[in-house]
Structure formats: C-alpha cells, structure tokens
Amino acid sequence: MSDQILDLQQEHSKYIEDIGDWTRTVSCCELTRADVDREVCLMGWVQFRRDHGGLIFVDLRDREGLTQVVFSPDIAPEAHERAGILRLEYVIAVKGKVRARPEGMTNPNLKTGEIEVVAHEWKLLNTSKTPPFAIEDRCDAGENLRLMWRFLDLRRPCMQKNLVLRHRAMQSIRHFLDENGFYEIETPFLTKSTPEGARDFLVPSRLNTGSFYALPQSPQLFKQLLMVSGFEKYFQIVRCFRDEDLRADRQPEFTQVDMELSFVNEHDVMTVAEQLMQRVFRDVLGKELTVPFPRMTWDEAMRDYGVDKPDTRFGMKLCELTDAVRNSGFKLFANAAMVKAIKVEGGETLTRKEIDAFTDFVRIYGAQGLAWIKIKSETEWQSPIAKFLSEEERKAIRERLDAKVGDILFFQAGEAEMVNAALGNLRVHIAQKLNLIPKDSFNFLWVTEFPLFEYDKEEHRYVACHHPFTSPMPGHIDLMTTDPARAKARAYDMVLNGNEVGGGSIRIHSAVTQMRMFEALGFTDERAEEQFGFLFHALEFGAPPHGGIAFGLDRLIMLLSDSQSIRDVIAFPKTQKATCLLTNAPSSVSGAQLRELGIRLREAPEKHADAAAQKSESAS
User: Fold this and answer.
1) 368 labelled as ligand-binding?
2) pTM for this model (two decimals)
C-alpha cells in the first residue's frame, strides 16, 4: 500500500465512531417502492462510490444485497460534506428516508432497484485498506490470491450465496432425519489408526509418549458400534480426514452426512436416501425429484460407460467390438484383450488438432494412443487405420455403433481396465468440449453390486473395494477365499451428473463372516485382533443386521450451486498441496512442543547436502 493511501486511511480514522444506540432497522436488500417515505437505518460496506459533483452516490452492501444511498448537499449538507472521505469497503451506518428513484434511473437487475435512501446522517464505523482484488462476482483474481485473502473473498456475493446454500442444505438434512426418527450422535475425532485405505492423519499423544491417535477417515466403526448399542437410526454431519493427493473435488478435511440404520436391507437404505435428496432439492432449489432413482449394476456401468459413476445426461455409450475385430489386419485390435469405441454424432468437423488433443487426454489413463475414423460417406472412411479393416469388419462397426455419414468414431484397445478408463473419461471430456451436456439438469442414479475386492498390483493382493466391513452378496461368502475376483458386495453408490455423491453398503454383522473377510484380505489373527478387536467383540454380542450410507456434503453443495470446485463451497479450504494460504498451515512448531511430545525430527536431506558442501568448501 502506498504511503499516500496509508496517510489517507490514518487521516480518516479519526472520524471513526462507535455504533452507540443506533440500531439497524432493515437489510440492504429489503426495501421496495412500498417503503417510500419510510425512515430507515442501514449498515454495511461501501461497494461503490460515485461523485456526480453535487450528489454522492454510494452502493451499500451487506450479506443480503445492495441499496443505493444518496448524499445530497440540499437535504443534509453536513452529511454530504463528510461523505467525501468514503472509500471502497469502508464500514458505515446511515440514517435516511426511502424515496423512489427518478424516472429512467431504476435498475431492474437489483431487488432494491426502484428506490434509494437519501442520507440525513451517517457514522463511519471503520476504514479499510484498498482490497487486493475487487469485492464483486466479476473478479479476475487468481485462486491463490483469493485464498490468501479468503476473508475478503468471502465478502463477494457469489461466495456468500454458496455458503448460505450450504447452510440451508444442512438445516434441511437435519430436519428431515429428525422427523424420520434418526438421532444425531457425535463420535470421536481422536481415535485409533486402522491403516486400511487412505493414509491417516496422525496426532501424537503428550500423555502417552510414543503413541498416536488418528483423525477419522469416517465414523465407520463407531456408527456400527452404535447399531450394536441399539440406537437403530443414527446420523451425523461430521468432519473427516484423509491424507491423500488432492484434486478439484477433494480436500484433506471434508464433511460427510453419515447415516446408519438397523434391521434394513439395501432397498430400505436407498429409499431413505432418495427421500432425503428429494427434501434437500425441494428446500434448497425448489426442484422436485422423481423417485425411485434409476439403478444399474456395476457391470452394466462399466460395460456402457467405462466408469462406475456414469453421467447419464447424454448418450455416447461405449460399444465393445472385441469379437468383431479379433481377426483384423490391424494388429493392435487383433491382439487386444478388449476393443471398445464411442460415436460422436456430427463429429466429422473435428480438426486434427482437436483429435490430437483428445489423444493427449487419454494418455492420462495409460493409453498409448487413440484410433479414430471419420465417416465421410457410405464408402469413404477417413482414418489411418481404415485400410486395415475388411468390409465385414466395417459392417460390424457400422451396425453396432449405428454410425452414419458425418460421425466420428474413437477406438481404444488394450487391457479392459485401461480401455474403460480412457474411453469412459474421454466420453465426458468430449461432451464438455462440444457442449453436449444439458444445462440445469440433475440425473440421479444408483450403481449397485460392486466387486467386493479389487486387486492391488503394488501390494500383490486383493483389497476391499469399499471397506472391509461391507457384506458380500448372498451366496458369495465362500467366494471371498476361493475366487475373490468374482465376489460381489452389497454396496451401492448414489451418482449425480457423473459424480459420486454418496456411497454405502449393508455391513457384516456376524463375527464369523467378519473374520473370514479379514482372512481373505491377508490379515493374520493377531493383526485383526490388534486393529479391530473391539469390533469383533461387539459383533459377538447380538449385533443386528445394519447398513448405511454417507454423502459427501462438499461435493453435493458444489453440484447444487453449479460451482467448479468444492473449494468454492468451503469457507476456508486448503490448496491442492493441502496448505492454507491464509494461515500458512501447516507450519513448523517449537522445539519445546516437540520435546513435550517426545518427538525428534530428522534433518531434511537438503540440509545434509548443504552441510556436506560447506564442509567440503572449508576443507579446500
């Protein structure tokens, strides 16, 4: 800040007054033509100031909106003269009378656009430095700058709107669950580390030197214990913590709407979850949702969409061609474990540059390239691979994809996991680029019958696809140890517009079945007892059948508010490097704090290198 501005602020500071006995009578978005001649008191921030010679206009902002305030030398000379000191983001209180704006001066885009308040007197409650960016929705400041000054960023109307929407959604959730017999019960934040999933955030214990708590990745075990305790219906809007790499829809600390019910099956849990979404959308957006939501199995989702959270707002399904090109002259197709394709209607106009960009995109998912064909006419196929395809293969491709003149086809060949991931994500990427996704639509979907296990290539073993407390499908208990790749889970995910917004399962409530699950995961009896002994003991004391679901509140609010990132719906989020630019967390702590905890830090490798270099330099 320049010395001139600093001097100006210090000069103005002498005019600051206490709020005294003034009481705000109305917010800055309430006044309409019906309030003309009403005496009011407004308080807020100076959004804009315009000096038109004789008159000074100020747009006054509070959390509800804007009101235009007029300082006139003819009506209140002293108030007008002092208004010359006003600057952006100064905090003021104004008393005045409401009047209609002159003919032709109304603002139809503003709720208070038909009136203005003529100031009779006012108080300067505080001054402000010049903000580092404009406090308005049309802000071109970078995200890092906005996060650094988050308390200012949150003054912008769009950010306040997001957090108000979040508040209303949370209130709607609480009211619905209370009305339906759920008890809100809190579970511990300082708990036991059970490293079977994402990394835990560890908290050292001062009173138990050398021991650590873990921050909960979810309340999973405690909510199951509450079912054993006989509460039958539990919920919690709870903070959870996972030490994992971040992206637009992930944070190291996030909020879950957590639910658990006793004496239920999948249908019961899914029905309550659908009714909850109905209530939230009605209360928050005024939209009515149709239930039940469509359902598809995990196998169907992977077959048609390549991903387990399909966006069903548009078509362009994946089509398998493996058998049709098994003997193809194009060896990549002939030798591949799987060949799939998608059709982009009217995509013939895509340029080579755009196609090359799509090729770069699929490399993210392990693809080596991207084959394509433009259908120029019934007989002319433009493509580097067209010459390798027989007439019989062309016919099969054309019929299965219902390909027509003007379409472009994209192909992927290789292992099934890569093919599905590459084409499934390319499908969404192309739809976004070509504006094929309908606006203002909310397509809900249940994905069911997930695999119980997935193979971890790094650890060379099967791990739980959801978590190790998910019950296998009826008849699949023996498959857990005999053929884990075929075992299916009583798990279900709620998907909205291609985003997983909720996931749950029917839990294992038998101690014997839970032990078999851990055997299938490679746990020794000792390790299972050490990490989860308290759960086994609970399951041995009449645990009821139970299941539940957890919704990612941040992601749900992101979709409800049409935001691009969950950081836009969290008051004080972290960056993609899990840092807080506002508080500079995480930060180092004092040696005294570390000694209290019995912790000694190893020197960073670069410090050793610097020390060695200094020693070498001294010796020479």
Assistant:
1) no
2) 0.91
Query: Which H or E element spans position 353?
Result: helix 352-363
Residues 102, 76: Cα–Cα separation, whole Å: 19
Please give the average per-residue pLDDT across 7-18, as a whole number. 82
Residue 503 marked in a binding site: no
Residue 542's Cβ-count burial label (10 Å; 0-12, 13-18, 19+) is exposed
Residues of the chain with pLDDT > 90, as a percent, come to 85
Residue 553 annotated in ligand binding: yes
Q: Is 342 exposed, middle or buried (0-12, 13-18, 19+ CB in 10 A)?
A: buried
Residues 394-413: b if buried by 16+ CB within 10 A, e if exposed:
bebbbeebebeeebbbbbbb
Tell how far CA 216 is from the center of its chain. Answer: 19
**Predicted confidence (pLDDT) at residue 519 exceeds the cutoff of 70:** yes
Q: If 0-12 CB within 10 Å is exposed, 13-18 middle and 19+ buried, where does residue 511 land?
A: middle
Strand pairing class (371-375; 233-241): unpaired
Q: How many residues does the chain have?
A: 620
User: Does 500 appear as a known binding residue?
Assistant: yes
Residue 244 marked ligand-binding? yes
pLDDT given for residue 2 in this prediction: 57
Residue 82 known to bind ligand: no
* Helix (H/G/I), strand (E/B), else coil: 115: strand
Backbone torsions φ then ψ of 131, nearest 5 degrees:
-60, 150
> What does each C-alpha distance from 483 to 98, 317, 480 come to in angstroms?
77, 30, 6
* Residue 443 pLDDT grade (very low, low, confident, very high; cuts 50, 70, 90): very high
- H helices of 368-507, in order, are 391-401, 416-433, 479-482
Tell me the two tokens of residue 102: 């002159």
Q: Does residue 59 contact residue 48 with C-beta atoms inside 8 Å? A: yes
Rounded Cα distance between 197 and 190, Å, is: 18
> What CA–CA distance (Å, rounded) separates 306 from 326?
21
